[in-house]
Automatic annotation (TrEMBL):
Alphabetically ordered keywords of this record: Amino-acid biosynthesis, Hydrolase, Magnesium, Metal-binding, Serine biosynthesis
Biological-process GO terms, alphabetical: L-serine biosynthetic process
Family to which the UniProt record says this protein belongs: Belongs to the HAD-like hydrolase superfamily. SerB family.
Protein name in the entry: Phosphoserine phosphatase
Enzyme Commission number(s): 3.1.3.3
Pathway noted in the entry: Amino-acid biosynthesis; L-serine biosynthesis; L-serine from 3-phospho-D-glycerate: step 3/3
Single GO cellular component term: cytoplasm
Length: 294
């Protein structure tokens, strides 16, 4: 049995559900139940016989676009652990691209970033190349960039603080940099930060990174280590948008692709394409009058 929670255009919802039901029935996955969640008139819950998640994902994506959706095998629970990417997920920007603008290199560096997030380039090589191009940039450009360019994604703090109020541990894990991530995590409310470190010499970036690289393997390892520390039966959720988030999304019970690149979206069992990050709270059946509102 597969359970789906979905937020889509209410004007076409009934028709789309009927079309999807017919398609899946022919494929041997009949719709066993469908109904709106009582707490919220936006979220449709459907239950399907069968276990073919890739098929169900394809049909849902075809029938409802844009939509917010999570597919699960077991009854939904508020996660015990939430691990999220930062750039273009918890914030609306790619920090290295915005920082590059201060060096007059945004167009060149953003092109490399886009290809890396699409999975077309090796992440570590692409990261080191971009960092090398920033050599000589004053460190105080990071402070200016944070103040002038970096903004949380709509619903980010509400999502994180509401999950924390339910006992969920929250971790920001990023292929970006602690110079940015530590500030962002403090603003949004994360319990822990994992990221890369820019080397600074005489008040300027020297074009190198300090320590090990935080890459896709690191993101998955952080999720698995944090889950293990919580003990057996811990439910995990991850959110991200790029190719380097895929292992983390696949390892989580709920892997949410947030306005994601195609490869990341295809790998996830949940996605948010229509609403903001609070759509996740709705799909977890957390009442809006209990959300963090600060």
């Amino acid at each position: 049995m597969l359970i789906v929670r979905l937020i889509a255009d209410p004007a076409t919802l009934e028709t789309r559900v009927e079309e999807m039901r017919d398609t899946l029935e022919v494929a041997g996955m009949p719709l066993a139940h469908a109904g709106m969640l009582d707490f919220c008139g936006e979220v449709l819950q459907m239950e399907f016989a069968g276990d073919d998640v890739p098929l169900l994902r394809r049909v849902l994506s075809s029938a409802f676009d844009p939509a917010d959706c999570i597919i699960a095998r077991d009854a939904f629970r508020v996660p015990d652990l939430f691990v999220s990417d930062m750039d273009s997920t918890m914030i609306g920007q790619e920090c290295i691209d915005e920082l590059a603008d201060f060096a007059g290199l945004k167009e060149k560096i953003s092109g490399i970033t886009e290809r890396a997030m699409q999975g077309e380039l090796d992440f570590e090589s692409a990261l080191r190349e971009r960092v090398s191009l920033l050599e000589g940039l004053p460190e105080d450009a990071i402070t200016r960039c944070l103040e002038e360019r970096i903004t949380p994604t709509e619903g980010a703090r509400t999502l994180v603080e509401t999950l924390k109020s339910r006992g969920c541990r929250t971790v920001l894990v990023t292929g970006g940099f602690h110079h940015f991530a530590d500030v962002v995590a403090d603003r949004i409310g994360f319990d822990r930060v994992v990221g890369n470190r820019l080397e600074v010499s005489a008040g300027k970036l020297n074009g190198h990174l300090a320590g090990a690289i935080t890459d896709s393997a690191t993101k998955r390892r952080v999720l698995e280590e944090e889950r293990a520390s919580l003990g057996g039966g811990a439910v995990t959720m991850a959110a991200g948008d790029g190719a380097n988030d895929i292992p983390m999304l696949q390892a989580a019970d709920y892997g949410i692709a947030f306005r994601a690149k195609p490869k990341a979206r295809e790998a996830a069992n949940g996605w948010v394409d229509r609403g903001n990050l609070t759509a996740i709270l709705k799909m977890l059946e957390i009442r809006e009058d209990t959300w963090f509102a600060g």
